[in-house]
Structures are given as structure tokens and as C-alpha cells.
Amino acid sequence: MTRSYLKKAFFTAFLLSFFLNPRLFFPGEKLLAIRGARVLKSDGLFWERCQVVIEKGIIKEVGPEVAIPEGAAVIEGENKWLIPGLMDVFICPTTLAKEKPEKSDYFNPQEKMVDVLDPEKYSTRSPQAWEIFKIHQEKFKDALKAGVTTLLLVPDKTRIISGLAGIIKLKHLFLQDSVLSDTLALKIGLERKSVEGLRSHMGVVWGIREFFLRQEYTSPVLFETNNEEEIARALSLQDEFGLKCIFLGKMSARSSYGEITRRKIPVLLSSPALTEVDSFVKNLKELLNSGPDLALFTDVNALNPLKVLISLTPWFRSGGVQEKDIYRLITSNFARIIGLDPRLGSIEKGKDADLVLLNGDPFQPATEIEKVFIEGKLVFDSQQSHSR
Amino acid sequence: MNEGRQAKRSREARWFVFFVFAWLVMPISAEDNAKVSEKLAIQAEKIYTVSRGILTNGLILIEKGKIVLVGPSEKIPANFNLIRAKTVIPGLVDTHTHLGSKSDWNEYFNKEFAGDTNPSLNIMDAIDLESVDFAFALSGGVTTVVVTPGSGNIICGELVIMKTAGHSHQARLLRNPAGLKMAFDLPQALRVVSEEFEKARKYSEEKKKAAEEGKGLAQDPQMEVLLKVLKREIPAHIHCIAFYAIENALKLKKKFNIDIILEHGLEADKLLKEIKEAAVPVSFGPMLLKQAESLPDPIPAALEKAGILFSIHSDAPIVPPNGLLLYAAQAAKYGLSEDVALRAITLGAAEILKIQDRVGSIEPGKDADLVLLDGDPLNVFTHVVSVVLDGRFVYREKEIL
Q1: Which residue among B122, B129, B149 places its CB closest to the CB of A232?
Q2: Are residues A102 and A208 in the same domain?
Q3: Do residue A304 and residue A177 come from a single domain?
Q4: Domain match, A139 and A233 both
Q5: Both A134 and A112 in a single domain?
Q6: Which among A192, A202, A209 has the least Cβ separation from residue B123?
Q7: Order of strands across the sheet with B370-373?
Q8: B58 pLDDT above the threshold of 60
């Protein structure tokens, strides 16, 4: 008797807690405004003393003359710099299923890279997968602290056709709703493997050709192209099958840039190792002159574009690469290449409020990131010294 | 004080004169460069045209990468940039190399598909244009090469004909695919290839039937390549070192009525009559190496005597690609007549590859691929001074004479 009474009491309390939720009574989220900050425009230059008004995770208004509406929560941006959330590439480690792999094991077009956010799927791959999963989570948190809000997940070069690249926002680390696209492009590497049938370049290209001959393929393809040979092979495969291509890698073949521009192939250029900086800056300058759609990402999963690029500024200065171009490469250009420019990549009316607030010039080494917002929500605050 | 000022003024004046001079000269030299690539006149003491004998004190006019005139030295028309040379021969043609594809040619590739049939592999997928091999070949006057896959398989893949200079794959390619490489070293090769050809015939009949009934048949790319050989669109380049391999290759030609080219043919002297009867060209080489029962050096002379169309190749990197003139000279030393020796690495080679309308001799209408020498071509002390490819200087040993 008493037990059923208790049950009822709990149930009503449970229901009441739902109805008394303040969110139900005040459904519209409060307006958020940032006042007087230096705001990065889409062309790489800055607006002085500019206001940004955010409503429901979307930028409502932006500009120096914009008035802050009444009742909005105001964040002081005096002497601070506001840039859009940065973008980067995360190379996901993949493993071969078997100890002694065969040729067919190197072709796996089904695997989706956004599964790194799904603990269940990820843990089935191998015994150590859970540890890897946790390491990824730590990496993503660090990326957030470095101002990276959007990540392009690309499989590594263990296989030849190695899976589907995807895009995530670092909004909720475990949840699938932070996935923006799970089938952006099919990643193809052109390196030789130590298995029968793939030991030669001819064998590798024939393997890829076999795959495309078997089925009509219309979605984009992401080629890893580091040198002249790989670029030439990717271009001939594009000719043969009419593929929609994106190139990703070191691109160390200046003679081919003209052809890449003519074919309007977007390029994701990887940041260099310290020994290759000189040639990297020359390549970058040539690519900027030649004019394909170009973006930059940090190699070896550093996930900290600003720090990496700050370390390269002396070379940029001597090589004649301007800072406004660099800003474009890690924000608006990146968004255009992954097809999300209506939502991401710049601080403009109607776009997602993914913002990074810094206490100084982003290209000064002493500058710190103070706050990071994703869709208007504060996800990192240096004063609270912990995220979320 | 006064002297110092004067010195400064004279220094300034010198700079002024320098800038004025630079301003006057620079645009002219730029124009000149453009002209060099457009219109070129080469005056030489000896021109080995190969197709029409030797021309003394001759003139070659080049326009837009093609030869427009070959004749006795007369007045040189205006706008042509004149270059004097001692001897000029056509750009050399190497009928069998592995240039630029070293990574796919080496022994571990050979093991990869050992005893297999892979007609759909294409060597173009393995060629590295940046490779120093091509410059190496150019330094010996080689302007056109056949690049073939390694001979580890029975059917090794498609081969290509390309030039040794040019900025991109497209600019360099003459023909792709230019042939199908096969290797008849293994005794079962004839049986395996025959079976594959039978399969290809069956496939073609099925395809025809499906087309008549209005149905589509899924394309089999392996069979499509074999069909090209059966329809005689491309020849089969058959690697045969031992005489039994040559016998097998001739049997294959008789059985399926296809075009074949015998590669290497290092024991061809034992089967001269049979090769002549079958009217099969031989791409002979490598010279200077003993790989079979007989020595290679006297065989070209025997081929000439038997009236067989043949070329001499380097098979680089087995022997260096820049020694093609030397290999021809070696064959001449062992009894080959000199004009046939030069023909075997120029026009004869082009005829075997069926590209004689583009390269191989110095004639109006052909590609302006020329080699400038400082002596007779078959003299081993002769240097390649410079190489012109498609009307452009692509190699210079020293300044032009």
C-alpha cells in the first residue's frame, strides 16, 4: 500500500519537474551580444569596434553601427579580436581487419570516419580501440581550446580506398547530432602496399580503376596527392571516370598547379615539417597566384592552426604571403571546399555563431584564446579554466 | 671634397647609362627568345637525313616545332634564328626501355605477378616525369622512347610511346596504348596466351550477340585490351630471349593472325629464315651484354643479311639509355653496314613502331627532333652537342658552335 503511494508521489514529482522547467515558460533563448571587438571580415580584413548580435545560435546582425538590443547578455569585446571558428583536418587512424591482409582488404569504401564519435561502433574494431577513442576525445577537447570548431575527418593511408570522410562540429563530443556530413567524399591514397597485386604503381591504379569500373560513382573523391606522380595519376583517373575531385596533401609539384586550376579542383594543403618550410611557402605562394580553391590544414593532427601558422610567420613575411590570405585559408575557403559556406567560415548575418574571442592579434605568439562559442553557446572560457 | 662629389656623379651616371641600356636591351632579348622557339634555321656541314642520304652544307628550317625545309644551304630567310652545326642527325628512337618507371620495373615487381596475365595494367600509371632517366636518355640524343612494363608476367600490360622532354604527360605522349607487352620466357606462355585470346574471341562473340538482341553486356577491360590486339589495332611486343621463345611467338602470330614485334631476339640468328618468312620485325638488344647462348654483337649484321626489318634498343636501365649511338657503332664494327646501323636507331625503329610519319628522319613535315653532333655519328669519340625536340633546345652539352 505504502509502496504504491510512494510510486505515485515519485511519478507526480517527475511530471511536475517537467512542467516547472523554466525553459518551457521562457522558450526563446536570450539574445547574446559582443560589443566593440575587432571583427574579422570575409575578405581577411578587420572591422574596428564592431558589434555582433546572436540569436538562437545564428548571427542576427553584425557591423560597427549595429545597436545592441535591450535585454541582451553583453560580452565586452573592447580591445579584443573576434574571428570565426577555425577549421582543420583530423586524420583518423584506421586498421586492417586481418593479420595477413589480401588485396581486397585495402579497398573499404563503406567505413565512415564520423564513427569516431560513436563509442559502440568504435570499440568493435580492436581491443585497444577504447583507449584510442579516449585519446581522440582528449584531442578534440584540446582542439576546441585552440579555437577549432569544425573538423574534417579523413581516414589515413593504411588502405588505398580507405573510407568516407565526414565533417563534425565539436559541439557534443559523444553525440551524433554534431555530425554535419558523414559522406562528404571517398578517400583514395595512391601509395604502393606490400601485398600481391599492389606492389607496383600500375597495380594500385588498376585496383582503383577496377573499383570505378564496377559502379557508377558520382559523389566527390578525396585524393591524397603529395608529389608529381600522385597528382598525375589522380588527374588521369579524373579524366577517365569524370570524378569530382578534392586534392589533399603536400602538393609539391608546382608545374601541375595550372592544370589543377584549369580543372577547378579544390586543394587542401597540409602544413609542412620544419625541414620543408621553404618549399612549402613557395608552393603556397604559387597556389595563391595560380588560383585554385585553396585551404590549409595542420599536418600530424596538431589541430592547432593558429599556433602552427604563427611559427611560420617569418617565412610568410619573407615569402610575401599576406596575413589576410592566411585567414581565408583556415576559415572561409575551407568552408567553401567542404560545401558548408552558407553556414560556416565567416562572421556574417545568417551564419552559425561559431566564434573565437582572443585578447590580442591572433598572429602574435603571446595572444590567448579567451572564449569559444559554437552556435552561440559558450564551450570554452579561459577564466573558468575548463570547458563545458 | 670636389673629387668625391665628381666620383659620386660619375657613379650615378654609370648607373643611369646601365639602366637606359638595360631598358633598351631587355625587351629585344625577350622577343628574340620567343623567335628562337618559333623559327629556327640550322646550317650544317653534314646532314644525315636517313631517308635521302647525306646532305653536305645543308640547311634545315624549323617552324612551330616542325621541319619545313631541308635543302642545300642558300640564303636564310629573315626572322629565322641561325644556328651552325657540324653534323645533324634525326632524334634517336629507342624501341624498348623502362625509363622513369624504375619502381615498377625492379625485380620485386617481376615477382609480384609472376606467371600471371595482366593485360589491363598500363605503364603510364607508373611513369615519373621528374625522373632523371629522361635527361639521361636526352644526353645521348634519344628523343622518342617506348616505355614498357617489366617482363615478370606472361601478359605484362600496355606500353606507351613518348618523347623524352615536355612539361606534362599529354605533351610527351605519342601513343597510349601503343602495344601489349608479353613475355615468352616461360614454356607455358604460348598455351596461356592462346587460352586468353580464345576467351577474348568468345567474349567478343557474346558482345556481338548481346548487341544484336539489344542487351548491354558489362565491359571486361582485360578482354577489351586483348581484343585490340586481335583486331590488329595494337601490336604485341613479345619478350623472347631464347630461340624457343621466338618459335612460340611466331606460332602465336600464325594462329591468331596478329601483329607482333620480337623484343630482344638475342638468339634470332638461329631462326633467320623463319623470321623472314613471317615478316616479323625485331627490336634487337641490349648490345654489349651476353645474356643468351650467342653473343649479341654480330646478330644485327646477320639480320641485315637476311633482310629482316630491325631496330637496336638499349633496354635501359639494363645498359645506359644514352649509349644508343655506341650500340649501333658496335653492331657496325661486327659487320653491319653504317647506313643500316644509323637506320636501326632512327627511321627503322620508327617504321617498326609505325610512327614514321612523325619521327625518324629529317624530312619536311616531320617533328623537329634533331641531334647536333661534333663529328660522324658512328665514331665513338663524337659528342652530342645539343638536342632539339619539337623545335626547342632541350639539351646542350656546351655552347652552340
Answers
A1: B129
A2: yes
A3: yes
A4: yes
A5: yes
A6: A202
A7: B66-72, B54-63, B39-48, B81-90, B370-373, B384-389, B392-396
A8: yes
**Is the Cβ pair B130, A228 closer than 8 Å?**
yes
Domains contained in chain A, number: 2
To the nearest whole Å, the CA of A205 is away from the closest chain B CA by 7
- Comparing B36 with B378, which gets the higher pLDDT? B378
pTM of the model: 0.79
A206 and B122: CB-CB below 8 Å? yes
pLDDT for B33: 43
A229 interaction partners in chain B (CB closer than 8 Å): 128-130
Do A222 and A139 lie in a common domain? yes
> Is residue A210 a part of any domain in this protein?
yes
Strands B81-90 and B39-48: parallel
Identify the CATH number of the domain in which residue A53 sits: 2.30.40.10
Q: Please indicate, yes or no, whether residues A100 and A221 belong to a single structural domain of this protein.
A: yes
CB contact under 8 A, B112 and A200: yes
Q: In the predicted model, is pLDDT for residue A26 greater than 50?
A: no
Instruction: State whether A94 and A210 are in the same domain.
Output: yes
For an interface test with B, which of A198, A202, A223 has the most B Cβ atoms less than 10 Å from its Cβ?
A: A202
CATH number for A123:
3.20.20.140
Residue A388 forms part of a structural domain: no
* Shared-domain flag, residues A314 and A166: yes
Q: What pLDDT does B16 receive? A: 67
Strand order from edge to edge, sheet including B260-264: B92-97, B142-147, B155-163, B173-183, B236-240, B260-264, B282-284, B310-312
Q: Which residues contact B78 (CB under 8 A, 6 or more apart)?
A: none
Judge: A255–B121 Cβ closer than 8 Å, yes or no: no
Q: Assess contact for A85 and A379: CB atoms under 8 A.
A: no
Which candidate from B109, B120, B219 shows the least CB-CB separation from A199? B109
Interface predicted TM-score (ipTM) over 0.90: no
Question: How far is A90 from chain B, CA to nearest CA, in Å?
Answer: 29
Which residues span the domain enclosing A53? Answer: 3-84+346-383
